[in-house]
What does this fold into?
Amino acid sequence: MPEIVVLVPKQAYSMRRFFESRAGIILLFTVLTVLPILVFVLPKTFFDSGPPLCVYTIVSGVECPGCGLTRGTMRLSHFDFAGAWEMNKLTFVVVPLLGIWWIRQWIIVFKKVKTFSNKTSSNTQ
It folds into this structure.
């Protein structure tokens, strides 16, 4: 029977090591903290203008089921429920699921940051 070999690119391994390092954890913590603040600070119409970024829409000319989720998320974050519904009805499913995922990830990263800070403070004493 032939042997199956799975190759993992060095970049994937080094990125994983980076995000397990102190600098990577701090970067993740910063992104997970700042990104939701940006969603609230930016105006709800921030992503309304410009060309579509969806590859499916660019190639086919037809909107995919995910088109409008970003704009709907912006409107939902500004409590414009009718606007979010108009952009994409899936916004009311996807945003709560993303919120749960975000909270879970933030807690995981926060615990790692706390662990790093505890190690640093115990090493200095």
Summary: The mean pLDDT is 82. DSSP finds six helices and no strands in the chain. Residues 36-116 form one domain.
